[in-house]
Design a protein that fits this description.
By secondary structure, the chain is mainly α. The protein has a single domain (about 10-125), classed as Arc Repressor Mutant, subunit A. It contains 7 helices and 2 strands, in the order αααααββαα. The protein has a two-stranded antiparallel sheet with strand order 1-2. It is globular, with a radius of gyration of 19 Å.
């Protein structure tokens, strides 16, 4: 197993040579992706944080807030705020559950429904731009390594 204690330690010389700091690179990649996604979704009145909710609801409408949290892997307070803003902006609406009035089911509005495919396409374009110099094997390896890192951190292995 590869271990390097300096991969994520901030040192003065690293500030001048951030390309050697793995934490910085992963963080910077995430910020670049989110920024470019936001640039693509903003004209449609959707933020990059709302896009996963719309995609998840497009796959299966009528999910509860708890189901969305689990499927998108965000905390409940974050989802509550996101859904509140989306409802305010007319992107989604909620209907009280027939079985439990304390619960509501979330749906995409008709007005928003026609833009979801366009938003997915815009997201795909950002990822395609990021991976355009990678082979299919490179992309599969990157995905596998990201999955492994996530699983390791989630399970404290």
């Amino acid at each position: 197993m590869y271990m390097h204690s300096q991969l994520c330690i901030w040192r003065l010389e690293d500030n001048l040579n951030m390309d050697k700091n793995l934490c910085y690179k992963v963080n910077y990649l995430g910020r670049l992706l989110l920024s470019q996604l936001n640039d693509q979704t903003k004209p449609f009145g959707v933020t990059q944080g709302q896009l996963p909710v719309l995609c998840c609801l497009d796959e299966k409408e009528g999910q509860t807030q708890a189901e969305l949290c689990k499927n998108i892997q965000v905390e409940q307070p974050t989802m509550a705020n996101t859904l509140r803003r989306m409802e305010r902006d007319g992107l989604i609406y909620r209907i009280s559950s027939e079985h439990d009035k304390r619960q509501s089911r979330v749906y995409i509005t008709d007005q928003t429904r026609h833009t979801v495919d366009i938003l997915k396409e815009k997201s795909d374009q950002v990822v395609a731009r990021m991976t355009r110099h990678m082979t299919e094997d490179d992309i599969n390896t990157l995905s596998r390594l990201i999955d492994l890192a996530i699983q390791t951190l989630e399970h404290g292995e």
